[in-house]
Amino acid sequence: MTITADQTLLRRAIDIAAHAVAQGDAPYGSLLAGPDGTILAEAHNTVRRDNDITAHPELKLARWAARELDPDTAAGTTLYTSCQPCGMCAGGIARSGIGRVVYALSTEQLVELNPQSGDWPTVTQHGPALFDEARAPIDAYYRPS
Questions:
Q1: Computed from CA positions of residues 111, 39, 100, 66, in that sequence, does the dihedral angle turn out positive or negative?
Q2: pLDDT (mean) for 15-44
């Protein structure tokens, strides 16, 4: 459940998404706000423009937060975004230390509006394999002598 302050900032994220469309970019926008609602950073999707599959606004802001904020400050922030973060972005958000996410459209709603949004292939994975060889660099990094 969102409160009025959340709705105000969420509307700003939607405005960023609309601005992205006006610039010829995909319709996704996000912002990162501090505990008092101050906007710390904004971003929109530039996947096509940058020819970069990771140029989602949520991931851009997660990287910004991880680079620019100390862990306690990051934990007090909220990411407002026009659509629910995808798996890639959700992983980046979790690792960045951002404390909370508020989104306007769910993934299911997005797919209803644009069925192509949910048309991602799966990738076959095989493993684990070569445990003893693979553990050597892990041990060297995490358990130095």
A1: positive
A2: 97
